[in-house]
Amino acid sequence: MDELDTILAKTFDLDTEVYHRRGFKRRVGYGAKPALLVIDMANGWTQPGSPFACDGMNSVIPAIRELLDVFRDKKLPVVFTSTAYDVTEGPNTDMGLWHLKVPIETMKTGSWEAEIDSRLQPADGEFVLIKKRASAFHGTHLSSMLKAMGVDTVIATGVTASCCVRHSVEDAIAEGFRPIVPRECVGDRVAGVVAWNLFDIDAKFGDVEPLADVLAQIKA
Amino acid sequence: MDELDTILAKTFDLDTEVYHRRGFKRRVGYGAKPALLVIDMANGWTQPGSPFACDGMNSVIPAIRELLDVFRDKKLPVVFTSTAYDVTEGPNTDMGLWHLKVPIETMKTGSWEAEIDSRLQPADGEFVLIKKRASAFHGTHLSSMLKAMGVDTVIATGVTASCCVRHSVEDAIAEGFRPIVPRECVGDRVAGVVAWNLFDIDAKFGDVEPLADVLAQIKA
Amino acid sequence: MDELDTILAKTFDLDTEVYHRRGFKRRVGYGAKPALLVIDMANGWTQPGSPFACDGMNSVIPAIRELLDVFRDKKLPVVFTSTAYDVTEGPNTDMGLWHLKVPIETMKTGSWEAEIDSRLQPADGEFVLIKKRASAFHGTHLSSMLKAMGVDTVIATGVTASCCVRHSVEDAIAEGFRPIVPRECVGDRVAGVVAWNLFDIDAKFGDVEPLADVLAQIKA
Amino acid sequence: MDELDTILAKTFDLDTEVYHRRGFKRRVGYGAKPALLVIDMANGWTQPGSPFACDGMNSVIPAIRELLDVFRDKKLPVVFTSTAYDVTEGPNTDMGLWHLKVPIETMKTGSWEAEIDSRLQPADGEFVLIKKRASAFHGTHLSSMLKAMGVDTVIATGVTASCCVRHSVEDAIAEGFRPIVPRECVGDRVAGVVAWNLFDIDAKFGDVEPLADVLAQIKA
C-alpha cells in the first residue's frame, strides 16, 4: 500500500499545518514518574489464529521489550492488560454490549489467547489487569492504582492503535496523566489504521514519539 | 449491648421524625428488573480467623440463600463480589492506598480467604467480580454490565454494613440503580454498626426492607 | 482532496473485507429507548473565529435539526454538551492536563463561544452538560442520568469526529449503551479525519448509518 | 442527648478495641500536596429554611475559615462543591434517581440555596464544582483535576457527615488520595449522626483529626 502511505503522509502534512496554526498538537511532555502500560499483548492478539491477531508483532514485541528492560532496570511501575470474559453465553454476560460489535466472545478468561505473550512475560510484582472494555482505564482500578503510586506519566504501548491503545490514551489524559506513545510499540490489523490513529492521538491526546527518544527520556 | 440497642432505637425514632418532616427517607421502590448483589461473602469475611471475620453469619448466610433461590428460579442476574490483591508488597501494589487504613494485605488473589463461601457457591453463569476497593461499583465494570443486562434495581446483600455494602449502595443510586437492602442479609463486626449504617442508608440512599417483603416482591 | 477520498474509499473496502472475515463491524442496533446527544455544537465550534471552528456546519446543523425535531416530537430525551472552563490561568485549573495538547484555554465558562449555537437552541427541559474532557461521559453524570431515564441507545451527533464524538461513542458502548452515529450529523476540521474516524467507529464501537435510516428508525 | 453521647462514646471504645486488635484504624497520613475540599457549604445547607439546613453551622463555618486562611496563605488548592439541578420536573431530569430518596428537587441551579455561603466566599481561581450526586468525586472531574494539580491528600470538610462528606471520603481513598477529616469542620442535621459517621470514616476510609492538628500539619 505504498500509494496509501504516500497520500496519508501528504494529508498529515496539510492537516498538521492547520493544527499548528490553530494551536493544537502541543507537547504534553514528561512528568516526574512514568509507568509503562503494555496493552493486550496476549496471544490472541500477538499470535496467528484468533480474530484479534495483529500485524507487525515481530517488530512491536522487541520494541516493547526495550522499554520493559529500562523500566525494570529503573524499578519503575509496569502494568500489563489483557481482555477476557468469564460468561460468554446467555444474557448475564460480563461482555456488556461490546460483543454486538466485535468478536470478544472468543476471548475466554484463563485461555491461552488471554495470556500475555511469553516473549513479554510479566515479572513478579508486575500487575496484569484483566479488563472488559477497550480502555485500560474504563471500569478498572488502573487510574487509582497509578495515582497511589505517584505516577503522572503513562507510556502506552501494545495493540490495537484504533481501539484499546487509542481509548486508553484518551482516558489517560482525561484522568490527568501525561500520555506518551512510542511509535514503534503500537500495532493493529488493517491498512492505514496505525498511521491515522497515531496522527489523531498526537494532535489531541498524547505525544507520539520515536522509541529512541522515549528510551532516552526514561533513562535520564 | 441491650442498652445500646435501646438508645439507638430511641435515637432513630427522633431522627426519623426530623427526616420525615424534611422529606427524606422516601421509598425508591422496585423497577422492572432486579439483580442480586452478594458482596464479599468470601471465607475471609464469613469464617473465623481473618481480621475481616464478621459476626452473625449463621443468620446472614441462610437469609441470602433464600434470595439466591428465588433469583435462580426466576433466572434473574446474580453477581458475587470478593476483594483480593495480586501484589501486596512493594510500591507497585494493586491495593492503592487502602492498606494504609485497613489490613487488606491479608486478602490475596487465589487464596481460600478470597473464595466465595461454599454455602453460597456461585452457579455457572453467575459472575464473581474481584474488586479492589470498598464499593462493588468503584473501578469496576459492574455498572456497565448491569446496564447492558437491562437491570434497574439492585438488591444489595453481604458484608460489611459500614464499608462495602454501604459504599456500594451509595454508588448504586448515584449510578441510576434503585438500591434495596434486605435487613437480615447484611452483617458487620462491631457493636451498633449494622443498625446505624442501615439507618443512614434507608434515610438517604436505598430502601432497607424486611427480607420477607423483598422475597415477596421478587417472586411477584 | 478527491485523490484522498478515492484512496480512502479503496482502503476502507480492503479493511472492511478483513473486518468482515474476522467477525468485526457487527450491528449493535437499536434498543427500546434512544436519547439524542448533541456534542459541542456551541459557537466556538460552529462559527468562524475560534481555534475550534469546524468545517461543514452548513450541512451538519440542518441534519441535527431534523433529528431534534423528531426527538422533540416523540418527547424523547435530548442532551447537549459544551466544553468550558472556569479557571484557565494558574496551577489550580479545571482544564486538567488537556491544555497541554489543545487550546482549550480559549473556551471560557459563560462565553459566547461556549454557548450552544442558536440554530440548535436547547428547549426547556433539555439538559446542557458542561464537560471538561473530550468524552461526554468521562467525569460527568451523563451515564447515570441516561440510565435513570431508562435510555439504552445513544444517537451521537456533533463535533468533532476525531475527538469528542469518537471518545463519547467509545465510552457509550463501554457504559452499556448502543451508540448510533448518523453520518451527516458529524463534523471536524481537517481533511480525511471525519471519514477515518467514522470508519473506525463503525468497525468497533457503534453503528454509523445514513441520517435517513436513523430518522426512520426513531419515527418507527 | 447526653445519654446518647455517653453510650456512643462507650460503644466506640469497645469497637475501637476490636478494630485495633484486627489491624483497622491505621493512619493514612499526609502526602506531599493537600487540597482543601469544602463540601456543600451553600445556603441551602448552612442557613435555616431549606429541608437540607444543618445544625452547628456557627462552629463549623469558623472552623473551615481557619483552614481556608491557611490554604490561601500557602497558595494550596481549594475546591468548593454545591449540589444543584437544572431540570427538576419531568422524566428527563439531571437528578437521576436521587430525588426518589431525598428532597433534592428543592435545590435549583442558580438559586440562593445552591450558592456558597458568603461567610466562606470562594476567592478568584477557586473552583466551585456543581455536583449531582452525594460524592464530590462521583460523576465529576474532581479526581482528574486534583491529579493534574499533583494533589495526593484531600482535607475534607463541610456537610453532611452521613452523606456527601462520607461518600466523598470513601471515594477519595478509592481514587488514591489520602483523606483527612478535621473533626470540627463537619456537620449534619440529626442526633448522633456526625459522631457515628466520623467513627466509621476513621476506622476504614480516612483520618479524623482535631482541627488544631490539621492546621499545624498544613502550616508545616
Which structural traits does this protein have?
homotetramer, 220 residues, alpha/beta, Rossmann fold, seven-stranded parallel sheet, 7 strands, 39% helix, globular
How would you characterize the overall build of this protein?
4 copies of one chain form a homotetramer. Chain A has 220 residues and is α/β, with parallel strands linked by helices. Chain A has one domain (33-219): 3-Layer(aba) Sandwich (Rossmann fold), CATH 3.40.50.850. Chain A is built from 7 helices and 7 strands. Chain A has helices spanning 2-22, 43-46, 57-73, 142-148, 161-175, 193-204, 211-219, and strands spanning 34-39, 78-83, 127-131, 153-159, 178-182, 186-187, 207-209. In chain A, strands 1, 2, 3, 4, 5, 6 and 7 form a 7-stranded parallel beta sheet that branches. In chain A, strand 4, helix 5 (161-175) and strand 5 (178-182) form a beta-alpha-beta unit. In chain A, helix 1 packs parallel to helix 6 (193-204), helix 3 runs parallel beside helix 7 and helix 5 runs parallel beside helix 6 (193-204). The longest helix of chain A has 21 residues, at 2-22. The interface between A and D is medium-sized, with 12 and 12 residues.
CATH T-level fold name of chain A: Rossmann fold
User: Greatest interface and its residue counts?
Assistant: A-C, 55 and 54 residues
CATH superfamily of chain A: Isochorismatase-like
End-to-end span of chain A in angstroms?
Answer: 38 Å
Q: Given the C-alpha coordinates, what overall shape of chain A results?
A: globular
